[in-house]
């Protein structure tokens, strides 16, 4: 029993054998690549997206092939000790080139094809391609027979040619990260950046700053070896987790602008749909039915259908809208201390409630309802878009041969979101209705005599006038 316990693997050894510091950033970077992949494939000609895709792919490859178990597998398959070293160094160098190409494309814009931009890109490709060739030449000249999976940098720090190879890849990595960090740091201070883009740039800046910490740890350990000291722990125990955290920040930096904007738009659509619920429930009483439920409908489609349903219902109420009540309600809301926007919304809520009550009092009066989305009568092969020649909606403007959109109804159709939010404050609506009723005693749908109790311009008008204001004339 004692021997079994002595030989048991400790939690540190167990998790160390899983190489979590390598697999976690690999998973995060892969997720970022998967998120970006549809845009990269769709807009393949965009150099900016190609640079992002190449950078993320190379970053995933670096962490994948830098895992000690994968290093051992690479050496075994190729049959050359430590052959994985120049391969991983080459991936790191290519990743550095992708960073610089991304910054050049990002700063100058994807449409920039100026000689300066093309020259900068050619310079980056040429220099880093030469570095990769130099890495393989130096490895071929070096004598590194003993396989090292974790501490190759410090173990061969004094070996001819291998020493120069290690310095070459660290110099290329440091230069690329330093230039990228400096450009991102100056860019993030630019005015007018989108919130999500600014957050992504800050995450990228942190990621590249941590890459510089990785380079400093490696170089410090190498210099210590050259001077006869032992700081190998900086290279084997500090540098790997630092660069793993850096990779996570870099992945977040690429995910945040795209993913953040997407989630923000989804949230905005759903909030807008929820805000319209009070007005939607109120206008359902006009037709007695609501929007049919569609299981596969997107959030945008549900919002559009709810907005269209509300506007269709308001058009059906056109002949019952009391312009005088709307003006008095607006004045009453202002008198209560509400701002103009809030006052318009409260006045519209009072007017809509009054119109619905008036319609219920005379449901059979007036011509067929008008819909923005469908046509149920008239010439044609069946339901379809409502087409009214010469129809114009505007303040006090009559459109078409028999249809007029009242000026107050035009405002109701445009401000449905504000009206719906006002309906969540029934106490304020009642205060406005009370002031709008005035000494005439018209208290609205919940008051004593009911709608149209007070004589107004619309009440004394010709009974045929509402029909001319709410429907399309039969003479098309």
TrEMBL record:
Coiled-coil regions, chain positions: none
Ranges that cross the membrane: 14-35, 47-67, 87-108, 120-142, 166-184, 196-214, 234-256
Skewed-composition ranges (Low complexity): 436-476
Keyword Ribosomal protein belongs to the record: no
Disordered, as annotated region: 363-405, 430-476
Segments forming domain DUF6545: 266-368
Swiss-Prot/TrEMBL keywords: Membrane, Transmembrane, Transmembrane helix
Cell cycle found in the keyword field: no
Protein name, as recorded: MAB_1171c family putative transporter
């Amino acid at each position: 029993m004692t021997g079994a316990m002595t030989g048991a693997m400790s939690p540190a050894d167990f998790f160390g054998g899983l190489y979590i510091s390598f697999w976690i950033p690999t998973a995060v970077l892969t997720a970022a690549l998967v998120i970006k992949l549809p845009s990269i494939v769709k807009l393949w000609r965009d150099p900016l997206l190609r640079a992002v895709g190449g950078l993320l792919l190379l970053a995933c490859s670096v962490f994948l092939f830098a895992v000690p178990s994968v290093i051992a597998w690479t050496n075994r398959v190729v049959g050359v000790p430590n052959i994985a070293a120049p391969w991983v160094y080459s991936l790191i160098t290519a990743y550095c080139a992708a960073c610089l190409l991304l910054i050049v494309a990002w700063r100058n814009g994807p449409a920039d094809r100026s000689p300066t931009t093309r020259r900068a890109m050619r310079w980056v490709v040429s220099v880093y391609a030469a570095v990769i060739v130099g890495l393989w030449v130096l490895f071929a000249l070096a004598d590194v027979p003993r396989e090292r999976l974790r501490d190759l940098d410090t173990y061969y720090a004094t070996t001819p040619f291998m020493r120069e190879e290690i310095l070459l890849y660290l110099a290329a990595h440091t230069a690329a990260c330093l230039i990228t960090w400096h450009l991102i740091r100056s860019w993030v201070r630019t005015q007018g950046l989108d919130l999500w883009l600014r957050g992504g740039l800050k995450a990228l800046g942190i990621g590249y700053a941590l890459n510089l910490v990785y380079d400093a740890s490696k170089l410090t350990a190498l210099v210590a070896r050259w001077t006869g000291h032992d700081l190998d722990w900086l290279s084997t125990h500090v540098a790997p987790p630092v660069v793993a955290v850096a990779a996570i920040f870099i992945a977040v930096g690429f995910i945040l602008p795209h993913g953040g904007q997407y989630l923000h738009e989804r949230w905005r659509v759903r909030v807008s749909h929820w805000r319209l619920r009070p007005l939607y429930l109120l206008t359902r009483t006009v037709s007695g039915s609501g929007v049919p439920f569609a299981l596969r409908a997107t959030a945008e489609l549900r919002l559009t259908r709810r907005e269209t349903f509300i506007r269709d219902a308001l058009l059906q109420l056109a002949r019952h809208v009391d312009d005088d009540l709307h003006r008095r309600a607006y004045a009453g809301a202002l008198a209560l201390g509400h701002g103009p926007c809030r006052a318009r919304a409260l006045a519209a809520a009072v007017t809509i409630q009054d119109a619905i009550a008036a319609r219920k009092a005379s449901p059979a009066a007036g011509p067929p309802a008008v819909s923005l989305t469908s046509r149920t009568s008239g010439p044609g092969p069946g339901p379809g878009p409502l087409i009214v020649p010469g129809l114009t909606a505007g303040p006090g403007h009559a459109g078409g041969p028999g249809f007029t959109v009242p000026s107050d109804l035009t405002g109701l159709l445009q401000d449905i979101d504000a009206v719906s939010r006002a309906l969540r404050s029934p106490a304020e609506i009642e205060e406005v209705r009370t002031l709008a009723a005035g000494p005439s005693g018209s208290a609205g749908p919940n008051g004593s005599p009911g709608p149209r109790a007070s004589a107004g311009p619309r009440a004394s008008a010709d009974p045929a006038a509402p029909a001319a204001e709410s429907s399309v004339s039969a003479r098309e």
